[in-house]
Amino acid sequence: MTLVGRARARAVEILTLDSPHNRNALSAALVGELAEALTEAGQDTGVRAVVLTHTGNTFSAGADLRDPPPPEALVGLLRQIVELPKPVVARVTGHVRAGGLGLLAACDIAAASAEATFAFTEVRVGVAPAVISLPLLPRTDPRALARYYLTGERFDAAEAARTGLLTTHADDVDTALAPILDGLRRSAPDALTETKRLLTARVLETFDRDADGLTALSARLFSSPQAREGMTAFLERRDPAWVV
């Protein structure tokens, strides 16, 4: 079964997360397939930019709790998006949770429709947004992250744009993306690569400095008793034991 659809429109490679049975959760299989598609797009001289989008009403529900990827694999995927020699644009028309927000932050440009919602739900299942902090912390408002990291509250596209998680939002996301994609198509390929390198230098410094420590933290928390209770409660659709 293919989990990542591929199409092309005027030198823009469109990669579509297509795992509706688990709301495009980041399973080991999906992460591997997306990494392969990104590698091929990055090496293809006919590709000017990449659009990352989704089927269904959820861009990504975060890590697949039944088949999670190793933390190292998720770190590798996020870094691959940041380092890809082509701009990567997220196109969101649905909900984004937990690890899915790491994908958004790794992209160079992110656009969402008005119905999109966002939440860092990790604390509610007994873990922390550790690995996804690598692209998030350098690119988003720290006060906003403190609130939403610590509470797991849901917020809308306008708030996501205010905090720096999104580049733009609109009732019709494709209308908002049209001038952006047109601009990328009008830009010289080598100039795009070098300009992206300027923009991502600070993010990659964070990867170099913090990836090992955050990977270890993620692995430790996912194997903790509270995480087992939180994930079991999530799958059983009940409150975990610590809720008061």
Automatic annotation (TrEMBL):
Name of the top EC class for this enzyme: lyase
Entry EC no(s): 4.2.1.17
Keyword Lyase annotated: yes
Domain of life: Bacteria
GO molecular function: enoyl-CoA hydratase activity
Alphabetic keyword roster: Lyase
Metal-binding as UniProt keyword: no
PANTHER family per the UniProt record, alphabetical: ENOYL-COA HYDRATASE (PTHR42964), POLYKETIDE BIOSYNTHESIS ENOYL-COA HYDRATASE PKSH-RELATED (PTHR42964:SF1)
Family per similarity comment: Belongs to the enoyl-CoA hydratase/isomerase family.
Protein name: Enoyl-CoA hydratase
Organism (species): Streptomyces caelestis
